[in-house]
């Protein structure tokens, strides 16, 4: 079945350093992928989604590149900000497109 | 403005009591979802609804049931709540991307 792996449960880094959150997926087809961000005591919100035409999605300084050969959709940002501290979910859509597969997520903590 | 609402936001119940969580959306989305979120476990899908009276079990449906009689409303029911159902419950709706409600924090004593 479809699955997602976010290898890091917790990533801590100093403000200004680059961010990379890993995401690999298993699927029987080439799914759309999403990154959701959830700040403390808030609801998850869409951060990025993959495109069908291999464009690199970008939002709020974050970007992610879909590599079908390695089944990866890592999230990156060149310079972390304190406000980036949150829980991040990578979620591939199932073949029907109507269900997302959420893993455990990665907590990002950014310090001064 | 696209919106998913949830009521109540906070709820404390005793073990064995019945619980009703309500969700509404104003986007006329056909598909709606109920998730629960627990530390270290991420978001777990309880039920998915494809439209009125068209509901399917998610990954952890045991102990829950749902009702969808209008497209804009989706209810989650816990008959005889258990302490291990203490969690934060999120409702979502979607056409393509999912929009989440603010969550209901349920405590079962």
Global Rg of chain A: 13 Å
Overall structural domain count of chain A: 1
Largest interface: A-B, 17 and 21 residues
Q: Number of DSSP strands of chain A?
A: 11
Total helical elements of chain A: 0
Estimated helix fraction of chain A: under 10%
CATH superfamily of chain A: Immunoglobulins
Q: Count every helix of chain B, treating DSSP H or I runs of 4 or more residues as helices.
A: 0
Mean residue pLDDT of chain B: 95
For this structure, the quaternary state is heterodimer
Which fold name is given in CATH as the topology of chain B? Answer: Immunoglobulin-like
The fourth-level CATH homologous superfamily of chain B is Immunoglobulins
Structural description of this entry:
- The complex is a heterodimer of chains A (112) and B (109).
- Chain A is mainly β.
- Chain A has a single domain (3-111), classed as Sandwich (Immunoglobulin-like), CATH 2.60.40.
- Chain A is 0% helix and 46% strand.
- In chain A, strand 5 and strand 6 form a beta hairpin.
- Chain A starts with a strand and ends with a strand.
- Chain B has one domain (4-99): Immunoglobulin-like, CATH 2.60.40.
- Chain B is 0% helix and 60% strand.
- Chain B has strands at 4-7, 10-13, 19-25, 31-38, 42-51, 54-57, 65-70, 73-78, 87-94, 98-100, 104-108.
- Chain B starts with a strand and ends with a strand.
- At the A-B interface, strand 6 of A face strand 5 and strand 10 of B.
Search tags:
heterodimer, A: 112 residues, mainly beta, Immunoglobulin-like, 5-stranded mixed beta sheet, 4-stranded antiparallel beta sheet, 0% helix, B: 109 residues, 7-stranded mixed beta sheet
Put the structure in a nutshell:
With 112 residues, chain A is mainly β. In chain A, 0% of the residues lie in helices and 46% in strands. The mean pLDDT of chain A is 89.
Spell out the blueprint of helices and strands.
The complex is a heterodimer of chains A (112) and B (109).
Chain A: E1 3-5, E2 10-14, E3 19-21, E4 24-26, E5 33-38, E6 45-49, E7 58-59, E8 62-67, E9 72-77, E10 86-92, E11 106-111
Parallel strand pairs in A: 2-11
Antiparallel strand pairs in A: 1-4, 3-9, 5-6, 5-10, 7-8, 8-9, 10-11
Chain B: E1 4-7, E2 10-13, E3 19-25, E4 31-38, E5 42-51, E6 54-57, E7 65-70, E8 73-78, E9 87-94, E10 98-100, E11 104-108
Parallel strand pairs in B: 2-11
Antiparallel strand pairs in B: 1-3, 3-8, 4-5, 4-9, 5-6, 7-8, 9-10, 9-11
